[in-house]
Here is the input.
Amino acid sequence: MALTRDLLNKFTEYSPLCKAMDMRTEEVGAGFARLILPYETKLIGDPVTGVLHGGAISTLLDSTCGVAVMSHPEGEVNTATIDLRIDYMRPARAGFDVTAEAEVYHATRTVAFVRGKAWADDPDKPSAIATGAFVFAWKAP
Amino acid sequence: MARFEPVQEVKKRRDAVLRALVDHIPFHAFLGIDFERKGDELTGVLRYAPHVIGNPLIERMHGGGTKAFLESTAIISLSWSLLWDRMENGELDLKKLAAGELPPLPRTINFTTDYLRPGLPRDAYARATIARAGRRYASVQVEAWQDNRAVLFAQSTGHFKMPELA
Here is the structure.
């Protein structure tokens, strides 16, 4: 099944790793996406505090950034990560689902520049901030 | 003259510490991450399984999974190096470790991943180099490859806040 724009809101069911993590696609806009990662003990990175592994948050943010890129109206519905940096501001509070939002803030013919953030209990207190460059294929007019 | 400790005892202790570090972090089992040891050198291994794929149509590894694998390799390698001296001189309480009482782990400050090539549906390997480990912060670089050691598919650099060791 090829990914089309109408199927983007099902991306988390389509992508095996997102599905294995039980992610949900909550909103897809034009160069924007919001995904949710439910808190699950299998994703814990620190058994003492019960905080999710940084890698689980990275996967959520990478997926969210990817969906944001694929939802860009001027590009093909296909992408790959070129580079992604994540700053961990504070641990995602144990027991809380994590929400991530990402937006394409600039796209050239070949590259989409994306930023995103992820939070657990309070959107004003992000757990992590993502900055990345993704493969972007400008659609022929 | 002092006699050397029997090699099997040394190996048993090192392997027990490594197992405790790796096995008590649930995320490792979820993604399929394990570590192999030669002396103090660790190699992260991500066993291929269908759930690490990002896009089923082109069958490539999910960029987030790749990043998670490299970050894990950095954290375990850094924790391992922090425990090394106390492990070697026998100060470390192996029973507590085996029971899951892990020492405080380093916390990631930031982590950047450079995706050099698509991740193929194969096992992946990663090795971390601790560029600097200070009292408060550490800077770690990670290289990851699949079939050929010289052909990297991802590389990372990250900063970590050191744990306050009791």
Notes: Strands of chain B lie at 33-38, 41-46, 53-55, 60-61, 107-115, 124-133, 137-145, 152-161.
